[in-house]
Amino acid sequence: MTDAQQTADATVPPSEQPSGPAPTPLLAPREGVPPVTADQAGLAEVVRSFAAGSGPVAVDAERASGYRYGQRAYLVQLRRRGAGTALIDPVGCPDLSALGEALAADEWVLHAASQDLPCLRDIGMVPTRLFDTELAGRLAGFARVGLGVMVENVLGFALEKGHSAVDWSSRPLPEPWLRYAALDVELLVDLREALEEELRSQGKLEWALEEFAAIAAAPPPPPRKDPWRRTSGMHKVRRRRQLAVVRELWTARDEVARRRDLSPGKVLSDAAIVNAAQAMPSDIRELAALQGFGHRMGRRQLQQWQAAVDRARELEDDRLPQPGQASSGPPPPRTWADKDPVAAARLSAARAAITARAEELVLPQENLLTPDTVRRVCWQPPAERTEHAVGQALRNLGAREWQIEQTAGLLVKALAAQP
Predict the structure, then answer these.
(1) Residue 157 pairs with which residues in a beta bridge?
(2) Is the dihedral of CA 268, 62, 205, 16 positive or negative?
(3) pLDDT in tens, 392-413
(4) Which of 1, 12, 93, 287 has a Cα at 20 to 30 A from 199?
(5) What is residue 133's three-state secondary structure?
(6) pLDDT at position 341 over 60
(7) Cis peptide before 219 (omega within 30 of 0)
(8) 234 in the same domain as 196
């Protein structure tokens, strides 16, 4: 659950108010830490056991973010009634499609599903139905929705902490890490059942089910265009030739990171890339003097980075990247007052209305309706300012029916706003 320890600001529901005794430490799985499944014979037994189990299947995955290239899964954890807990090593068992197929008709319970689904998909595990306990917590109005906090506040147990950011690509995996991983799915189905009841009592269960269905049905995202533009510190780089240096260094770093199976940040930091773009060194001596290209870097490494800088230097002007990335959406809201004061007034009114409704419903504003959706409707509203037309516009932008029901009428009024 490496990337899933996130929080959302919302009003705290009564069920989250601190009361009663301190949480009970959960130090080990009920049946103990299972052995790691790392071969085909063991995987076949897991498939048989979990196919014969009953009820929802708790699923989690551990990655090696910050250590290895990409978002590959290095451990998959499952738990199901009648099957117990399984820990599977995707290095030894890189194809889990048989397991995915055996569980295809069942509900999978994940925490922050969008974090784990890409790496699970890569190894053949794709759910058709799911329950996301993090998203359920957000919709129920919990202020903090990390797994440990949710288990503590909802179920009264304190999970072991401390191994979320370790290098899960290490082999063999230490027993304390495996215990931590097993505990991540130990109470996931229990949490799911408690949250379902909470959502039902708040009248939000159908909303959650719509959200879960949308996540399960969503196709894999397309490759990001110009990923080098996400280099941290890019705002310091202004000139087009400097942008070309960032692009060339980012691309060279990515090739090295992919080849060596290392996190790109371990090959060369974003800060070093930006420093080189700003300084435009003419040789490796000048490059070596920059922060991020210190004395520990060998001459061969310096030469490859300087070669990237030189490629950017030699580019024809018409091949230099543009300062801004082309966008199909509306301009930044800060420019609306100058570009279109009427649209700016619509956006201000819409934001206020959506915020107020989210507070009434006790859920985060972005879960009621994404800020991007609000901006797009306000910048280019439908020709007819009716609930039906606005609802269809929202639907075309990916809004769910419950969101349309809650916000279309508010947006109709906001779209009539004048400066």
Answers:
(1) 24
(2) negative
(3) 999 999 999 999 999 999 999 9
(4) 1
(5) helix
(6) yes
(7) no
(8) no
What is the sign, positive or negative, of the torsion defined by CA atoms of 323, 328, 332, 335?
A: positive
282: CATH: 1.10.150.80
pLDDT at 16: 54
Tokens 């279309």, residue located: 408
For the chain, the C-alpha Rg in angstroms (whole number) is 25
Same domain, residue pair 364 and 237: no
Instruction: Decide if 357 contacts 408 (C-beta within 8 A).
Output: no
Same domain, 102 and 21: yes
- Alpha helices (H) along 315-380: 336-339, 341-361, 365-368, 371-379
Rounded distance between C-alpha atoms, residue 15 and residue 275, angstroms: 50
Q: Specify the residue for token string 């060596």.
A: 260
Q: Which two tokens stand for residue 298?
A: 């060998």
pLDDT at position 20: 62
Total domain count, the chain: 3
Contact indicator for 113, 215 with CB cutoff of 8 Å: yes
pTM beyond 0.85, yes or no = yes
Q: Is the pLDDT of residue 81 over 80?
A: yes
Q: What is the mean pLDDT of residues 174-190?
A: 97
Measured at the CA of 59, the angle between CA 58 and CA 65, to 5 degrees, comes to 145
Task: Name the average pLDDT for the chain.
Answer: 93
